[in-house]
Amino acid sequence: MKGLAYERVDLMPGAHIKEMEGMYGEGKTTVPGVTIGDEAVHGSRAILARLEELEPEPALFPAANADAVREAERWGDEELQDLGRRLPFGALHFRPEAMGSFGGVTLDPPGVDFAIGYIRAGWKYHGITAQILADDLKGLPEKVDHVDALVADGVIGAEQPNAADLQIGATLRVLLGVGDLQPLIAGRPAEKVARRVFPDYSFDVPAGAFPVGWVPAAT
Ligand SMILES: N[C@@H](CCC(=O)N[C@@H](CS)C(=O)NCC(=O)O)C(=O)O
Q1: Which of 41, 96, 98, 181 has a CA between 20 and 30 Å from the CA of residue 106?
Q2: What tens digit of pLDDT does each residue of 48-69 get?
Q3: Which pTM value belongs to this model?
């Protein structure tokens, strides 16, 4: 978006923890990070703020509503993003073969064995329990309503995506890959935000993964 030259480096999940800490410091285990010369910047919000300094246009924090965009970006990071970790891992527990959809492949039986072990480790790593998942699902409609309200208020959803569009759209785009969640998001302004900033994303857990009664009805 900023027209800056960059090199993308993908890390192997699992092995990324040590590599990230080596580059960005103790406890900084998550992607993304960026190095700009000798400077290491860790975390999506810090990165976007730094990119804005390097190249102000197009603005990620437009002067007209910069504070509202910052607050929406914070909300997306601190209050929405956890669902993007837990709900896909949660759904995959019930449909482990669907993990192949991340890479656009069909897993053979040994691949499904690998997926089962990987997903189990993911539950442990993210502290997922069935109760937490059920509560996340119950709270999702309220969060989607909040996204729609941000669109209605003109904070996100404008022609030129801002930092909050990117932060919120990223999580929603992941959630759209969970078939059970599509009815809660599809056809709503929130879906448009997600698909506009991230049109292509390969991930598909067929609907019917979560136990009956866990997913709230779409309103
Ligand atoms: N709030 C942070 C969170 C980053 C984050 O959770 N990244 C995930 C991407 S899938 C990750 O690295 N997960 C693996 C891990 O938690 O070690 C940000 O937006 O930079």
Answers
A1: 181
A2: 999 999 999 999 999 999 999 9
A3: 0.95
